Amino acid sequence: MKIGRVVGTVVSTINSPVFDGRRLLVCDLLDAAGEPDGSYLICVDTVGSGAGEAVLIVDEGNSARQVLGMATAPVRAVVVGIVDQLDVDGEPVLREG
Amino acid sequence: MQLARVTGTLVATVKADGLEGVKFLIVQPLDRRRQPEGEPVVAADAVHMAGPGELVYIVAAREAAQALPNTFVPVDHAIVGIVDAVEELR
Question: Model confidence over B47-56: pLDDT tens digits?
Fold first, then answer.
């Protein structure tokens, strides 16, 4: 899994039916220091996360389909959690909220 | 999933079984500021409505084939949506 920060949303009318009624979030991916590493993912939101929040992302198709409850879906990246705190090597990296 | 810009079309008469009727487009992956990132790839158009110049989002790897009517096909990138807007959240 990966850690990201919600920085935007994607608005789309014409799309695969899987995405109907779902929120698509643009998430900057964070490194172990909690800083953006320059890459990003467009993720399907499943936890109601919002602007600026640090989130837990799974970027793997089987898990994504499991979370969405669909046997087939062209989805890989899904936000599956909101990060409250992150510590690395005993040092606080993220303190949210 | 990632943002991409459609830059071209591809026609292949001879192709693997299951790919009949699948439209292929050339897409340039973009970073989230819509600047080109990496090399262009060939993507199957799963929304049947994307065309050159359009901003789309694509899914890569095995999940790409799941966007198509026949899900057991050799496809590794698919266009799964046309982007109306990318809204920055503050």
Answer: 999 999 999 9
